[in-house]
Specification:
Blueprint: H1 2-19, E1 31-35, E2 64-66, E3 72-74, E4 77-82, E5 88-93, H2 107-120, E6 129-136, E7 139-144, H3 151-154, E8 180-186, E9 190-195, E10 208-212, H4 216-224, E11 230-233, E12 245-259, E13 266-267, E14 273-274, H5 282-291, H6 294-302, E15 306-308, H7 330-339, E16 352-353, E17 356-357, E18 359-365, H8 369-382, E19 388-394, H9 396-399, E20 408-411, H10 417-423, H11 442-453, H12 457-468, H13 475-478, E21 481-494, E22 497-498, E23 521-522
Parallel strand pairs: 1-10, 1-11, 18-19
Antiparallel strand pairs: 2-3, 4-5, 5-7, 6-7, 8-9, 9-10, 11-21, 12-20, 12-21, 13-14, 15-21, 16-17, 22-23
Amino acid sequence: MKKIVGLLLMFVFMMTGCSSEKTAGPAKKDEVVISVGVNMTAGGYDPIAGYGVWGPDIFHSKLLKYNVKSELETDLATAYEISKDGLMYTYHLRQDAKFADGTPLTAKDVVFTYTKAKDSGSAADLTMLAGVKAVDDYTVVFTLNKPWSVFTSTTATIGIISQAAYNEKYGDNPLASGPWKVAQFQKDQQLILVPNEHYYGQKPKLKKVTILKLDEEAALAAAKSGQLDLVLVETEFAKTKVAGMHLAELETVTGLVINLPMVKEATTADGKVIGNNVTSDWAIRKALNIGIDRKLIVQNAFNGIGDPAYGWSAALPWGNAQAAFADNQVEEAKKILTDAGWIDTDGDGIREKNGLKAEFVVTGRSNDLQRYNTVVAVAADAKKLGINIIPKAAPWNECRLAQATPTCWVFGSHNPMDVYRYYHSSQMGKGVIGNPSSYANPKVDMYIDQALAATSSDKVDEYWRLAQWDGTTGMKEDYPYLWIANTRLTYFIKDGLDIGKQRVHVRSQGIPVVENLAEWSWQ
């Protein structure tokens, strides 16, 4: 093992020595060398193909953006208006925005970006977009085919590209109007960034950022040798001591969640198996939700680094703290199960009902240690209730069959659209993550529909909160999911490096820490 680590560390020395001209010793005060997982060096930095939808986009600017309070604010747009019927969105653009080659960004680039993204079937949902046109060089009007209040959130995820510069190789060499531009890129090895001197916003304090792709062990070894200024580490390594570096735990709005199918097992007309005979029982779902000990699970699964979760994070403007409830109510959970007829009659520690054991498989992705560790820790804790959860590490193509076999999901973003995807009855089986619990509650559907149709931001947030819990119905009564914990992202950071004020992130494989690179500096 030491030999392997040594070879990997040598690779780091070669990478940093040859490519970034950085050598061992005190860090230069105008650059950093970091490792934040695999995605930042994967290429494909093309908003048309969906880049920026699930994680940060440090190259492109967008019409709107999220601030440190997870609230929307203007970015490329200086202002915007929504028509009373919710069908027309008018954005007014700033007039000093330029792409990295110095050419002005105008309304035609916005029209080109959205038209291209819609035609390509991008990961950004633009099915509600009926049309987009430029009124003049700095005014764009979007027309929707139905009221869709989360359209403003959509405009905070799609980076604007240059119509003149866009080509089939754009994804590995973006020419954008954000704070950074590519100086050198070697796919799956390294990405070197330098400031875009034409950026209209806060000028980066660093002159160069080198991002390396390293696996966990090699990255930690490189950090210990002083070669890295910031490194993402799994929580299981967070207690490691690294001389000259300190640990930072960054909060996320992302929850690890197990879906609990609410319908009995059946085969659909197209041959698809859905439903689960155990989790379809309300008593099983409620007993699990109120009976498990989330703090203990966080300790066992994440080295104690994380926060118990009962639903969407209250840190979100539309989160509903009232949807939370007390857990580790073991005796109350047992009573619910017994009253519902789930009793251990053969003494094996697992309850039964009408010949059916309180037992089911839950998958955790084999390439995501946190998800699998979560399932294992939940299974261990659920035994005290007489419920036998069988953890299984599985590839993604198996995990996605979650309408029948529960799996551990990663739920949570700044966009309330997630509530629609996971809780609205119309979304069952839609796409990859559409309502995997087959949840159907007419009143919840009504609140979600009202949230999507509202044009006042206050009313929008109010309806999203009611969809979660209105005092009598919602997730707190139906328990379609078993929310476990909001993750924290852990990094070792070299002493003296200030990474600015970080907003509460989405998980996104740990890369959101770079979103505010323009604020980073050495003290």
